[in-house]
Design brief:
Helix content is about 25%, strand content about 30%. By secondary structure, it is an alpha/beta fold. It has a single domain, classed as Rossmann fold, CATH 3.40.50. Helix 1 packs across helix 2. The two termini are about 15 Å apart. The relative contact order is 0.26.
Length: about 140
C-alpha cells in the first residue's frame, strides 16, 4: 500500500492515527506536511512526537525555523516550519543538508523549498471538507 487516508477530525483519535502512520511508513524518517494554515499540522506533529517518545516541551518552530526534540530512546526529532523562508539557499544557512543526511526523524511544515533536496519521504496532506479533517499520506521514492 502506498497511500494512507484517514480522518483526523476527532483529536482523541490522533494517537491511534499516529501509530497507524508510523506503521505505514515502515522506517521512512522524513515527513512533509502540506496543508492550509490552521488545518492542524502542528497539532498532529505534536501527537506524532508524543507517540515517538519526545520528552521535551514542544512548540511551533514558526520563528525559530527548526526545533529539536529529544526522545526517551535517545534519538532526536527535528520539526521544521519553512513558511518564512523565501529562497532555497536559506536552507543551507540552517544546515538543512546535514539534517536530511542524518538518521533522525524530520517533520517539515511548508516543505516546497525542500522538495528538490529529498530522494524519498512521506508526503502528508491535511484536507478539510465539511468541517472534517482528513490526513492523506503518500510514500514518495
Amino acid at each position: 500500500m502506498t497511500n494512507l487516508n484517514i480522518s483526523i477530525s476527532d483529536i482523541s483519535l490522533h494517537t491511534e492515527v499516529a501509530k497507524q502512520l508510523i506503521d505505514f511508513v515502515a522506517g521512512e524518517r522524513i515527513f512533509l506536511f502540506d496543508a492550509p494554515m490552521g488545518s492542524g499540522k502542528t497539532t498532529f506533529i505534536k501527537t506524532l512526537c508524543h507517540y515517538l517518545g519526545v520528552k521535551d516541551t514542544m512548540s511551533s518552530p514558526t520563528y525559530s525555523i527548526v526545533n529539536e526534540y529529544h526522545t526517551h530512546a535517545d534519538y532526536k526529532i527535528f520539526h521544521f516550519d519553512l513558511y518564512r523562508l523565501k529562497h532555497r539557499e536559506e536552507l543551507f544557512d540552517i544546515g538543512f543538508d546535514e539534517y536530511i543526511s542524518s538518521t533522525n526523524y524530520l517533520f517539515i511544515e511548508w516543505p516546497e523549498l525542500a522538495l528538490d533536496f529529498l530522494d524519498s519521504y512521506i508526503y502528508i496532506t491535511i484536507n478539510i471538507q465539511n468541517d472534517n479533517r482528513y490526513l492523506c499520506a503518500k510514500l514518495i521514492k
